[in-house]
Amino acid sequence: MVMRTHVEMVRVRYGETDKMGVAHHSSYLLWFELGRTGLLRAAGHSYRGLEAEGVMLPVVEYGATFLKGAHYDDELAIETKIREMKSRVITFDYRVRRGEEIISRGFTRHVWVDTNSRPRRLPDGVTEAITPFLASGD
Amino acid sequence: MVMRTHVEMVRVRYGETDKMGVAHHSSYLLWFELGRTGLLRAAGHSYRGLEAEGVMLPVVEYGATFLKGAHYDDELAIETKIREMKSRVITFDYRVRRGEEIISRGFTRHVWVDTNSRPRRLPDGVTEAITPFLASGD
Amino acid sequence: MVMRTHVEMVRVRYGETDKMGVAHHSSYLLWFELGRTGLLRAAGHSYRGLEAEGVMLPVVEYGATFLKGAHYDDELAIETKIREMKSRVITFDYRVRRGEEIISRGFTRHVWVDTNSRPRRLPDGVTEAITPFLASGD
Amino acid sequence: MVMRTHVEMVRVRYGETDKMGVAHHSSYLLWFELGRTGLLRAAGHSYRGLEAEGVMLPVVEYGATFLKGAHYDDELAIETKIREMKSRVITFDYRVRRGEEIISRGFTRHVWVDTNSRPRRLPDGVTEAITPFLASGD
Fold first, then answer.
1. What is the pTM of this model?
2. Could C14 and D19 be called an inter-chain contact, meaning their C-beta atoms sit closer than 8 Å?
3. What are the extents of the domains in chain D?
């Protein structure tokens, strides 16, 4: 089985920049969100559909580092893979690329919960579907 | 009865600016939101409490004009009053002031709905409470 | 000459929703921004390039009406055309469509300014390039 | 000398919530920003003033963990102190408290740069002014 990385393209919006002239550091979290929902969709499961089934995926931890600023109108590739997947916790890793240049790396950690915020297991089928995106030691 | 204007102070956040060096024009809608929830609170009714009672106030129309830019860290006064109040529709008017200078004017129009998005009347007591903020011909 | 409308597709982001379960009304201004910069790009002029030449296009007025809410993950078409174009002022009209359903209409009015915020004329060539998007009486 | 923590009060805005009904995880970065600029102001140096002198403080790393969600209209205390201060790097630590309950912890790491994004030392006087907020082993 080949390990997969999901790539989501995003263009920096004007409203995402700040007076320093680059994308505000909070914008990356929105792009990471696009990355992981894109990965789920590529695996055949929309996050919207999961929520409709009563499964939610709140963020319990995140982190990011920044090597370069992202400018208005830059086209960025949000590369997403799964670092770790346990019965109730999932961690996504992200790389933000502008052409060949890596400008940021980050991660988000989530728990699967039901609509009452109680931890729950992932629905059948989802684990199998997203396993190809699970990193294996790199 | 004296007509009242609610004044809410807000300081421009760094993340609200864009690369033009001023607050992005969408930020004003967040400040208007602070203005009208401040007005409701001053009238003894929190918007949070209204939602808990099943009353919501979605925006059906808005508009704004801009005379000057708002800069990072500027302290702004958001002046809010009620332009018009009908059984199911309410219109708020806003003025954004920096010191003595008016930098923006705007309005938002809302309908009262229940949790199923059906129009509903305002709960008893709320109309009386907010009437002092109703503009009378100026 | 055929009058053109620019169509930009946008998918509602999770972070753009609010606790009412629909896209916050301020999000539409970000989508309108994508619409007009998409129109400029389709006309052969990137807004980024215009700014690099010292031309900026601040918003002096906006307005919008809302017929339906936009939900997370909805795919929306932002239809943009030019309502009016004078030597120093330009007005864009927007329609937000979900499939066949119009969910919002809006406009933004802008002035062309230089980097010192002084009004200026549009660079040569830009007027001609965007004229096909100018509405003619509908 | 007593070690100080700066406390900035913030109320959760409606537009900061998402459809899960709590503040979107990106909102905390905006609140951390209020925390550190509040700390600088309490130390007698506005960040706005530093930028006017040509000193900027971009984020090179951040992280946060979430224990509880923050709801619309919650009043939160953003507690900020300085974890570490080197000649060119500064790290702030944050705790978000709702009453007696800690709902989130986070940090941001920054470099001091000039307007050309070149690393630079902190202006004289600033180091002394903010030293009281430097954590000492707790």
1. 0.95
2. yes
3. 6-133
Of the partner residues B20, B26, B56, the one whose CB lies closest to the CB of residue C20: B56
Pick the residue of D11, D33, D73 with the most B CBs within 10 A to test the interface with B by mutation: D73
Fold of B6-133: Thiol Ester Dehydrase; Chain A (3.10.129)
Q: Do B60 and C66 touch (CB under 8 A)?
A: yes
DSSP B37-76: HHHHHHTT--HHHHHHTT-B--EEEEEEEESS--BTT-EE
Size of interface C-D (CB pairs under 8 A): 26
Closest approach of chain C CAs to the CA of D66, in angstroms? 17
Query: DSSP code of B56?
Result: B
Buried b (16+ CB within 10 A) or exposed e, A36-55: bbbbbbbbebebbebbeeeb
Query: From the list A15, A30, A72, which residue is nearest C15 (CB)?
Result: A30
Query: C-alpha A36: how far from its chain's center?
Result: 3
CA atoms of D74 and D99, how far apart (whole Å): 10
The tens-digit pLDDT sequence of chain B (138 residues) is 567 999 999 999 999 999 999 999 999 999 999 999 999 999 999 999 999 999 999 999 999 999 999 999 999 999 999 999 988 899 999 999 999 999 999 999 999 999 888 998 888 789 899 999 998 754
Span C82-115, pLDDT tens digits: 999 988 899 999 999 999 999 999 999 999 999 8
Amino acid letter, B6: H
The set of chains that have 3 or more CB pairs under 8 A with D is A, B, C
CA distance C32 to B64: 15
Which of A25, A67, A94 is the best substitution to test chain D (most D C-beta atoms within 10 A)? A25
Distance CA C52, CA C137 (A): 34
Contact C34, C78 (CB under 8 A): yes
